[in-house]
Structure formats: structure tokens, C-alpha cells
Amino acid sequence: MNQPTLQHAESTRALCVDLDGTLVATDTIWESFLILLKTAPHRLLALLFALRGGRPTLKRYLSTHAPVDPRTLPYREEVLELTRDARRAGRPVLLVTASDQATAGAIAAHVDVFDEAFGSDGRHNLKAQRKADFLASRFGRGGFQYVGDAAADLPVWKAAGDALIVAASSRTRRRAEQAVSDVTVVSERPNKWSAAIKELRPHQWAKNLLLFVPLYFAHAYDDLALLFSAVMAFFSFSFCASSIYVLNDLIDLPADRRHRTKRSRPLASGALAIPEALLLMVASFASSFLLATNFVNPGFVWVLFGYIALTTFYTFYLKQQLIVDVLALAVLFTYRVLAGSVAVEVELSFWLLAFSIFFFTSLAFVKRYSELIQLQHNNENTLRGRDYVLADVPVVTSLGPASGLLAVLVFALYINNPSIQKYYATPEALWGICLILMYWITRIWFLAARAEMHDDPVLFAVRDKVSLFSGVLVLGCLLAARF
Asked: Which residues pair with residue 145 across a beta bridge?
């Protein structure tokens, strides 16, 4: 099998490049569908009527009412380099795709490496054998090279006489090797299982340890039946949260691709295709629902639906509202504590709810503050997808630390509550937790101001040695107070 090079090609031989999955690591039809779903969901019925006219009609409808922004697509640099090499060699370079002509033209104009761009015309789908016939009539059989990625490209590779393959499946690769004698692998296919696991973000499951908090403060952690329910609730809630993470990434694709860290996520980078992500989202929620119905209780199932409703409302509306988005994040964290209480059927205390609201409001402000600080490095003024500007930094730095210290105050008042005497042999040891919390919250804000912290403070805490050691000290104080 050849290495990715064009040196063996004749200088007059045209280089023809596919779009979806080849030039870009995504499918522009699915991209348009997501845009339509987000910006004009009222057009979905009309989309179904367009589908009755066939795929070319559907593509024309999407390109008209939900055009993709070429600036937001994940381009494959290795394919762009092939086209640049061909241009430098004086060879004709064409973009030939089954996507609509309008999409092909817009992308070709953006990348500025193609002599011509051809796509479906609203009546005919420029794909598979139709594409092969088109190129063969224009350049003659064997008169062009073709860069593709899917089984639908096999007739085109046969007409070309060789194959340039981009991120194809092993089955497509084998079929290409059987169809033509000269196969060049431009880039390997990413590991889909690895991408799927990464997309579920299991590291974020650390947040769901909050479900165990009600069990601890009810001092029922020695009840094995309740402990089992809490463990099952943890996994159920985690799968539910993961399904929402996938949904968020689908909705936020354009913004994520411009973000300094989110651009490497499986969906944003193209390692995971949009249909694969949709399937992953459904499978994740199904796992969550099965665990909840079989191993927890009916009330917890309703809690899951409530979480989905809240997070969906946050995704589509609340996250773009000033201050409301921060309070919504705090509520979603506190909701995990509520979910834990429903799972083990214990009543939540006022103290725990008050502490959670203030504490997680501070962490939510840290998240926004870290994103605002990054704007300074990017010479930007407005946070994309959020209603914040650089001028908000002083206000955020006032509200955020204050919320965190209010959480410490609530905990201090809880310690002074006479009712806790029956749960703790030495409640004075809990004062150590106040000092640890004050140190940790203050340190988080110092690091955020220095742009030394990940924009997700919970993820940062899970990986930060000082934070982990602080957690061990808190546990030590709890044990000292209890026993």
C-alpha cells in the first residue's frame, strides 16, 4: 500500500476531492439539519415534505434554509495539503460532492484551493455511479485521481483507476483494494469506541458523587440496601448526564469548534459523526432509564426526566441569559443532591440545600470568569454563546468569591446548630472544614485570575493534587467529628 503522495501522478491528471467525510471530518447535510433544528424548528414539517422529493430536494431545502458556515467546519489538513500540492504542480483541482451545489460553492470559496466545485443540483444526486460517470465524461477513465472516504466512492475509484482514501472503515478499505490495484491511504480512521467513550465524558461523572451526600448526612451509610440504591442511582444519573452532554455538543458544534479546548472534542473534531452521536445519546439515556426502573425507585425516574427538562431548557435558552445561566448551573449541581435524596428516600436538610446553592454558584462564576479571562488572550470582547463581555469581569470577581464564602458561613452556622450533637461525638472538629473550604475557594479564584485553571472547576479539582489533598483533609475532619 502506498504512502500519501502525489509524486507518481501525471502533471496533467486532475485531482478530484469529495467533501463530506473527506475534505471535512463531518457531514454537511447533518450539520444543516442541526442548524435547522436549533434556529428554525418550525420548518421541520416542511423538511419532511422536501424529503418526499428525494435526497437532492432535501439537500437543496437544507442549503437554502439552514446553510452551513464554512468557517465552522473541521477541515482535514492532510487533504488540504494534497490539494495545495496539486495546485502547485499545475494540476486541475475540483471539489465534487453529493452535497448541494450551494454548499459546495460556499466551501470551495472559503478554502480557496479548488478550480471548480460541483454538487447536487436539487434534482440529481451527484454520488456513487453518477459521480463516476460525470468525472469519466469530463476527464476520461483513468484521467483523474479521486479522494474519498466511503463505500459510495467505490465506483469513482474504479473509474479513476486508483484510490486515495481518507479515514475509511476497514471494510471500505478492503473493498477498494479489491477494486483497484493502486490504493493510497491519506489518513487513518479514528478509533470510534475511544471517541464514543470520550464523548460520554466519564470524567464528568465525578460531579455525580453528590448523589451520595444525602446518604452520608442522613447517617445511613451502613444500610447496604440504601447504599446499593445510591450506587445504581449514581450510574443511572451519570448515563443520563452523558446523554445531555452529547446533546449539548450537537447543539453547540459551531461554537465548540472555535473554542480553545472544546474544539478537540470528538464531535467538534469530527472523530465522531453526528449520526453516531445521536445513537450514542439514545443508548446512554436508555441505559440510564433501565438502571433507574430496575434498581432504584419510580420517584428517581421522574427526577431523571426533570433533569433532562432542566438541562434542555438551559441548553436552548438559559445559557444565553446574563446571571441566570450561572444560577441555573448552581441549581443543576444542587439538583444532584436532590436526586440522591430521592434515590435513598431521605429528607434533605435546609443546611445542605443552602450550602449547595451558594457553593455551586461560586463555582459557576469561576467557569464564566475563566472564559472571560481567555477573551483577553484572544483579543475578543464578547463571550460566544453567552451574554457576557470583558467589562463584566469586575462584577464576576465580586459575586463569585462572595458566594463561596457565604457557603462557608452556612456551614459554620450548621456546626453551631445544637441538633448536630446527636450525630457527631466531637462536632468541634468540623471547624477544620471551614478553614479548608475558605482556603480552597480562595485558591480557585487566585488560579482563575492567573489563567491557570481549566474552565470547568469541578474537572480541575478532580485532577488537581492540592484539591484532592484538601478533600482528604475534609474527610479526616468528618471522621474525627463522627468518631
From this structure: 15
Query: What is the domain range of residue 421?
Result: 193-482
pTM comes to: 0.83
pLDDT of 119 strictly over 80: yes
Question: For the chain, how long is the longest CA-to-CA vector?
Answer: 90
Q: What is the CATH number of the domain that holds 352?
A: 1.10.357.140
Last residue of a domain, one of 189, 221, 241: 189
User: What residues contact residue 242 under an 8 Å CB cut-off, 6+ apart?
Assistant: 200, 201, 202, 204, 205, 284
pLDDT range class, residue 422, cuts 50, 70, 90: confident
Distance CA(162)–CA(5), nearest Å, equals: 13
Same domain membership, residue 386 and residue 239:
yes
C-alpha cell at position 305: 426526566
CA distance 317 to 336: 21
Residue 408: which pLDDT band, with cuts at 50, 70 and 90? very high
CATH number of the CATH domain containing 119: 3.40.50.1000
Region 297-309 average pLDDT: 94
**What residue type is assigned to position 417 of the chain?**
N
